[in-house]
Amino acid sequence: MTTIYGVTIILLLLSSFKNPLKTKKALKIAFHKFKKVLHPFLMMLIGTSLALAVIPEAWIEQTLMGSKLSAVVVGSLLGSIVMMPGFVAFPLASILKESGVSYGVIAAFTTTLMMVGVLTYPVEKVYLGLKMTLLRNGISYFIALITALVIALAFGEVWL
Known about the structure:
It is a single chain. The chain is built from 8 helices and no strands. By secondary structure, the chain is mainly α. It has a domain at 55-154. The mean pLDDT is 85.
C-alpha cells in the first residue's frame, strides 16, 4: 500500500510541475467527489460493523449446517448483507468448514460475501447508478448460486 501512495504522490508532483492549474482543478474535482461519497461510505462501514457485531458466529455456523438447499439460500442471503475482501472471507470459510458446514453452503456464503453487497448499495448507486447497481448485484447473486451448485455437485453433496 505504501508503494501506491508513493507512486501517487510522485505522479501528483509531476503533474503539478507540468500544469499547476490543471492539477489544482483535478484535485478540486476529486475532493468534491470524495465529499459526495463520504456519507454513503461511512454508513456502509457502520452498517457492516453493526451486522458483524450483532450476528454471532455460533448462530451463523448453526444456521449454515447441513447441505440442504435451504442452508445454501440462507448462506447466500447472509453473505449478501455485507461485502468483504477475500483475505477476510477465506479464513471465515475455513472456520465454517471446521464447524461442519458443507462446501456448497460455504461456496454460496463466501461468493456472495465477496460479490454481492446490500450494505454497499448506497456507495455503488452513487458511482454506477441505480440500474447498473441492481444489475451487478443480481448477476453476482446468480453467479454465486451457480458456483454453489457446481461446488456441491463436485463434492457429492445433495441438496434434497
